[in-house]
Write a structure and sequence with these properties.
The chain is mainly α and about 450 residues long. The protein has 2 domains: about 40-225, no CATH class; about 235-439, no CATH class. The protein has helices at about 10-40, 45-60, 65-80, 85-105, 110-120, 125-135, 140-155, 160-185, 190-215, 225, 235-260, 265-300, 305-340, 345-375, 380-400, 405-435. About 45% of the residues are buried.
């Protein structure tokens, strides 16, 4: 921070750099899971882990509101120098995460059966996928608690601890993958067990850092607020809106996949390759958005509009630089990246037809990624929900309907308009509602 309390570039990168590194570790773990099962004697194991991973990806992405909501509330308590509020934000989120996790464990059988019916895998693959699911579901308390801890530390503008938690989880998972599958000869059960142990290992490390952090912040645990259901009103209000917002986003991505499948196996595979590049863009830009969450939240807690504006300006500047970099990378290396992701000539050729959409995507998507961070920090969850739902129902679906005659190009154009409408809507909302609310 400068002498007048305004953030600088260093404050952005103090948070963004560790979170970008953390995000990079996520796809690395998926590659290891694929690698160890892909070298077993049957492709059934690879398919089972892929299906199981998809199910948990859906479940846990839907629960990511625990991370986002905790960050915004914590950052505002930090700005207001409310150490008791920091404890309340952590305690409430951990209690809710545990209740959700225990519910998932309790209903695991109907959830697993329903998911398998939706996917419609072959019987052999389905049996191993259910085995994977039945083991990994026990990681839910650890996984959701880790969401909370990561969000809490980000709210404290501490991205170093989330990076350590991510690295501990992923390195432990990778080592145990190799030990259980390659050395001990386990199959999908070994991959699932590695994930369970890794999550609780990361949680243990995270709790150690929580204890250390709270010792430095004088205050007490207001247990009455943690046990009073009425005290959860603000928490549930914010997170309910974030949950609906996330569901709308997941629907859009699932819809793109489903419509690609209706156009044939080649289009489905090509779109899957291109979505990997879209996810790569998101991983990079989300790191800066996380910095925006923490800085904006603190500014709102301090009630300093100048700090808020400066935080958004710096975050936007670096986001645009990164987005432009992604565009250049995709122009120069896009065909090579497609070849790296698939060795099937027909899929490569099909993907290259639609690569231009990914080349322009970063500069269009960057606005929605950045403003997600701004709105999370300002705890404007209802506005996030409304803009996301409107972009889905009033822009994406009508655009897809009108552009069906253009095939997959029409589908990608509808998706691009969806991302653009999110950014435009959130920018207007920022100017009209977020900024005026901070005085």
């Amino acid at each position: 921070m400068s002498g007048n309390g305004l953030p600088g570039n260093r404050d952005i990168w103090r948070i963004a750099a560790p979170m970008i590194l953390s995000n990079i570790s996520v796809p690395l773990l998926g590659m290891v899971d694929t690698g160890v099962t892909g070298h077993l004697e049957s492709p059934i194991y690879l398919g089972a882990v892929a299906i199981g991973g998809t199910i948990f990806g859906f479940l846990y992405t839907g629960m990511n509101f625990l991370r986002m909501g905790t960050t915004g509330i914590t950052a505002q308590s930090l700005g207001a120098e409310d150490n008791d509020g920091l404890r309340v934000s952590l305690g409430q989120a951990l209690i809710v995460s545990l209740l959700i996790a225990l519910t998932l464990i309790a209903i695991q059988h109907p959830v697993g059966t329903f998911a398998m019916r939706l996917i419609g895998a072959e019987p052999d693959v389905e049996s191993f996928a259910l085995l994977y699911f039945s083991i990994r579901i026990w990681s839910a308390p650890g996984t959701l608690a880790n969401f909370v801890l990561i969000g809490w530390f980000l709210g404290l503008q501490n991205a170093r601890v989330p990076l350590i938690i991510f690295l501990v989880i992923n390195i432990t998972n990778i080592v145990l993958d190799l030990l259980f599958v390659i050395v001990l000869g386990l199959k999908v059960d070994g991959v699932a067990l590695a994930s369970v142990i890794a999550e609780y290992t990361g949680l243990a490390v995270g709790i150690g850092f929580v204890i250390k952090s709270l010792r430095r912040r004088t205050g007490h645990w207001p247990f009455a607020r943690l046990l009073n259901l009425r005290a959860y009103a603000a928490f549930f209000s914010i997170n309910a809106h974030l949950f609906i917002r996330t569901m709308a986003l997941m629907f859009t991505f699932a819809f793109v996949t489903a419509q690609g499948a209706r156009m044939g196996g080649l289009v489905l595979a090509a779109n899957a390759v291109l979505m990997n590049l879209q996810n790569l863009t998101a991983f990079g830009l989300d790191g800066i958005a996380h910095a925006a969450e923490a800085l904006v939240g603190k500014a709102v807690g301090q009630k300093r509009r100048d700090v808020l504006e400066r935080s958004v300006q710096l975050s936007l500047k670096w986001s645009l630089y990164f987005a432009a970099g992604f565009c250049i990378v995709y122009v120069v290396t896009g065909p090579a990246l497609v070849r790296l992701l698939t060795n099937l000539p027909e899929v490569r050729q099909t993907a290259l037809q639609y690569l231009p959409w990914l080349i322009v995507s970063p500069m269009i998507s960057v606005w929605s990624f950045l403003y997600d961070g701004v709105y999370v920090g300002a705890t404007r969850a209802r506005a996030m929900r409304d803009i996301m739902v409107a972009s889905t129902l009033l822009v994406f679906l009508p655009a897809w309907y009108l552009l069906q005659g253009f095939g997959n190009h029409g589908l990608w154009l509808a998706f691009t308009l969806f991302m653009a409408s999110r950014g435009i809507g959130m920018h207007i909302g920022y100017r009209r509602k977020v900024l005026p609310s901070v005085t």
